[in-house]
Amino acid sequence: MGVNCLFLFSRLTKAVPTSYPFRSLWTKMDLSLPNVRGMTELDREKFSKEVNVPSVEIPSQNIGKSMHVFKKYLLKMEKLKPVVEVDGTVLRKKLLLDPLLFETLEKLSEEQQTKLSELDVNNDNFSRTCLHLQYENFRIDDIFKAVLPEGKEGCTSYSRIGHIIHLNLRDHLLPYKNLIGQVLIDKLIGVKTVVNKSSAIDSTYRNFQMEVLAGETDFITEVKENLCTFKFDFSQVYWNSRLCTEHERIIKLLPQNCVLFDVFAGVGPFSVPAAKIRKCQVFANDLNPSSYHWLKENVRINKVAKVETFNLDGRQFIREQLSSFLLRKPTEPIHVTMNLPALAVEFLDAFIGLLAGIELDPLPDITVHVYSFCEESSAFSEMRTKVESSLKHSIEDGKIVELVDVRDVSPKKHMLRLSFRIPIEILTKSGPEVEEETSEPKRLKLDLESQDR
Questions:
Q1: Please, what's the largest Cα pairwise distance for the chain?
Q2: How far apart are CA 10 and CA 14, in angstroms?
Q3: What is the tens place of the pLDDT at every residue in 267-321?
Q4: DSSP summary character for residue 130
Q5: Other C-beta atoms within 10 Å of 22: how many?
Q6: 28 backbone dihedrals φ, ψ, rounded to 5°
Q7: In terms of Cα–Cα distance, which of 260, 385, 280 is closest to 322?
Q8: Residue 219: strand, helix, or coil
Q9: What is the pTM of this model?
Q10: Pairing status of strand 126-133 against strand 445-447
Q11: If we measure between CA atoms, which residue out of 339, 394, 349 comes closest to residue 372?
Q12: What are phi and psi of 295, to 5 degrees?
């Protein structure tokens, strides 16, 4: 989760390409703003600076032809056009150049100089132009670099969910929270709400308290992912945009027309595309009533067929719905997703004895995809040990489909997925070693890292 905000903000800000060396330009142009350090309430008027940049005047009719030379040298800043009119005439225009990339005419290649000479451009056309930069010209990371405590970690762990920016501010940034929120509203297109989440959660449903830092108190949002639309109330359900790639990986693993049991379905990031893209028969479940509501809504919005939804505890869902489906003697491969990393492994015991005393022919082909948090130093061995401990049975290498490090949750914690074919011995186990399980949901106090499912 500790991803530097400079990297994240540069990815989301489309006005300047991420490859553009704006950091160096800041130094080259002396864009320092000492009067804003420590500002906690945004004062846009204080973001004012005069700078000098190289420029060149060119006859208007030659602008297009000159771009073959000057295109890569143009000054690129937010809300600033690099081609401007010259006062008092429409016959000539001025190109503003990047001082980091352009030095003098003589530093250009011989071919470039020849081309400019043909366009009637020489040393007399070059000069320095004074620019008056304002708040609108500065990028998000430049504003935060100027304002926030020097030498300390910047904004970390935020996601964009539709029109909502979701932050997890460190304590030393809390005095600046309203300024941070307002800058994001100003600079990111389509953002209407900025929220900061609380430091802890104690909830069966894994939603959390949020503080609105800027913008509208509007938590109903829409997200596009894997060719599907997901609508939900972000304050009442769980959604993590960083898991988009993992959702896609699972969808690609599913065979066409297979059967999917989604034990902790949330609002449907596995279930809906599985039905829509892979044409799977889907049984989707979530204990959270709000997630269940939006799961049904997303099934409707995406017009997917063959999806049944349930509002049950995960263990009850496996023991009742999966077991009854197996009694139909299905021939299709069955996949089970268990994406609740803080607890999912504990629910694996629901598979023990699921078919005790029942003979099936053909035997069911069940692949389980289970997630868990593991320590970095021993993540892969820890994951396998957790799964085998809960199943009370070893998993042979031949049964393992893949063991994937999904993402870093923190410097010392990883989210892993183990995909394996469940041994038939687990399903048919009977006798006193099969413990009676309650259908009551397990409750656990989850810290912020444990929310990343």
A1: 95
A2: 8
A3: 999 999 999 999 999 999 999 999 999 999 999 999 999 999 999 999 999 999 9
A4: E
A5: 23
A6: -60, -35
A7: 260
A8: coil
A9: 0.81
A10: unpaired
A11: 339
A12: -60, -50
